[in-house]
TrEMBL record:
The keyword Transcription applies. Residues 181-279 form the HTH araC/xylS-type domain. GO terms for molecular function: DNA-binding transcription factor activity; sequence-specific DNA binding. It comes from Streptomyces laurentii. Coiled coil: none annotated. It holds the Pfam family HTH_18. InterPro entries: AraC_XylS_family_regulators (IPR050204), HTH_AraC (IPR018060). The lineage of its organism: Bacteria, Bacillati, Actinomycetota, Actinomycetes, Kitasatosporales. This is HTH araC/xylS-type domain-containing protein. Keywords: DNA-binding, Transcription, Transcription regulation.
Amino acid sequence: MVRHRVCTGGGRCEWFIKAPDARLRAGIGPYRGFRARAGVPQDRLVLPSGRVSLLIGLGGELRVGGGGTTAGAGAGAGTARHTSVVSGLHTRARVLGHGGELHGVELALAPWAAYRLFGGASLAELGDVLTDPEDVLGARCRTLGERLADAPGWAERFALLDETLLAWTADAAPAHTVAPAVLEAWRLLHQAQGHMRIGEVADRTGWSLRHLESRFREQIGLTPKRLARVLRLRRAVGELTAGHGPAHTAAVCGFFDQSHLGREFNALTGMPPGRWLAAGGTENAAWITG
């Protein structure tokens, strides 16, 4: 069943959301179709998510950096424009925007699922990078985009995504599967929401720390330590937006103290927690998860 949501904050937009086929759900979040009709340029400060994002555009262009209407990380930088983008794991917030209209569908992928779907391409090369999906997936991404554009509605588009992603998964070579120790390390870090010593993670996988760091970066996109920082940030964002104070948030998220939380938040978002909250946060971003 396709869920339909309409939002009005910052301009008109619609979401069309559906869970993927049950066989895909372990590694792929809900499909998110979107149509933004703000009529005026829109910018968002998008935080690191710990997910690989594949956005297939059906209309309009996504603007990366340099929008100028959102203060913070990336503002004032050079601007790149994309119809479709793939974003690897990143460790710093980005300014993303559009010129007033944007239409497409986004897939949020666990990095181990992306590694398989992308044919074993090194996710380290996608770390902190946005690029055209054809650079990673080749012509099959353009073909998928054309078929999605031709589909009569969102139910048909989501069915096409199920069919296509199941086929890509079935066609993936065994060598393009993430190593069990890397997958276990990813699971441990997510379970602990980043609050776990990396040495303990390595011990529990049975690999040396150096070997784990090398293979993890290749197959996930960041080192375990950098991913842990992103996961702690995501938990801190959740605590702060739920109304908990900085002292409580620092304690439950594994920061040494409130000052440590502030330094990490500033390093990863470009602004301190109080300023980010005063600006309304980014959790209402309607057209990309980050």
